[in-house]
Amino acid sequence: MSSVAPSPYAPPPSDGQGRPGGGRTAGRPDPYATPLQRGNHPPKQVPPPRRGGAPAPSTPVPQPSSSNPATPSGNPADLIITGEAVALDLRPAGLMSRIGSGVIDLAVYGIIGVAIVLLSLRFIVNDSQAGVLIVSTMAVMMVIVPTAVETVTRGLSAGKVAMGTRVVREDGGPVRFRQSFVRALTGVGEIWFCFGSIAVLVAIFNNRSKRLGDFLAGTYAVRERGTELAVAPLLMPPDLGAWAERADLRRLPDNLALHARVFLSRTGTLAPQTRFQLGRALAAAIEPYVSPPPPWGTNPERFIAAVLVERRDREYAAGLEGQARRADESEHIRRLPYGVTDYA
Predict the structure, then answer these.
(1) What is the C-alpha separation between 314 and 46, in angstroms, rounded?
(2) Which of 126, 163, 219, 275 has the fewest CB atoms inside 10 Å of its own CB, making it the most exposed?
């Protein structure tokens, strides 16, 4: 009987008594052990169980650093994955950018409002008309105009264009009339009447610098300029090129391929232990779609890169072949049958 080679990325099998190290891979060194574990050091003594049945403290799970928050799958917290498995890297705008755009918007709308009032004073004959004019101008410049501008421009304004920001929904989509109206209506109290003090205080205590209107409307401001991150193209590891050419690659799920690509592009921002664990988990998830498995001792990240590169190259070659086939079919269809010459 032929035996199936064990997965180099699977956790060590149990020996039947709850202790790792048994099974068909017993006695085989772990290819991904740390240098200290590979040396001739005495095995680490396991502490005896505590009296009273209290469980021993477990090893803490590594958490992403606060400077670069990430989801449990290793993706950054600001990475939004849509239903079409498209990653949107929308980085929130900073507090100073939001304050700058707000000051510019207040100045623009305020100057326009004051100019409208001054130009309309010549047609005012009493104080009642002056009061109606002032209230109407305030309503137009505080609510109607900001709502219309954000709705038409999909989250832009004069200040946001100057500061390179844009307002989007929580799912990364463009804002609509409802979100723009709620933001503008809330801004009357927290920005205009309080000179932005409430908005600044609320924005200080959340990681996306959201003001009160953003919480009510389900929106936040993102940076448009400076968000293009240069991602190095994936290259085939030289030691895995021959294996990848002979390997049979099944179609990877789009979500799995996306997570693997994002992981490889962000390995430098992860803690070493978190990077190792995520790489091994992704390699174990990808390995069932590849036959034969990679050589024993292959680094998980190199294995993931080899699979993604070979998958990309094969899909590109298939696309070129399909394009050439369609061109030949089109040329064949344009020809007249039986060798008839086209004199057109």
Answers:
(1) 49
(2) 126
